[in-house]
Amino acid sequence: MRFQTSGNIVETLWKVQNSRYRRYRYFCNIRQQREARKRQRIMAKLRRAVKPEEWEQHLESMDRLSTPKIPPKPKLFGRKRKWRPVNVRRIEELSTPTSRDVPEPRDPFAVPATALVYKISRRLSKIAKSKTPSETAPPRIPGKVSPAALKAKATPRLIILAKPAERPAGMETDVRENAFTVSPTALTAKCSKRLKLLARPKIYKR
């Protein structure tokens, strides 16, 4: 059996002091002390705010508020109705349709008495008058150029856009002599499934 020397003991003590567990315990103790001091400060403030005779009442109210609430039992919707005998006459009365009197036919050309005594207001008399031709806009002549368009000056950009597009001369770009000619690439092209599907006429539901 070998005994540890003083050098080994010092080394092990140094390792224990600098170990992670010791550091963890040190920080935990500091945190607990900090929380205890914080709790003491809060309690001291509470004691200063609450009177000594009200302290027990305060603790009771805190205990009551901290306890979890017990949810009440769910109540069934509706209430039980007492059994009553079936009244057949009442059911028959409710099942019969209501009888309503047919109103007398009204004369469409008859003027009501209130309309004969009615006095027209100023606003209605003003609205009832037809507008004079000067108030309405004159009818527009189709094909007539507006005076604003006659005075307008074309910008360089408008002049460029007004000119026809210049395309290179060729059979494909110019107007064809025979409109039904097919290009050789179209004759050798292979139709895909998607094109075949799109080429089918669409059927609309009536």
UniProtKB/TrEMBL annotation:
The keyword Repeat applies. Keywords: Repeat. PANTHER family: TESTICULAR HAPLOID EXPRESSED GENE PROTEIN (PTHR15901). This is Testicular haploid expressed gene protein. It comes from Dufourea novaeangliae (Sweat bee).
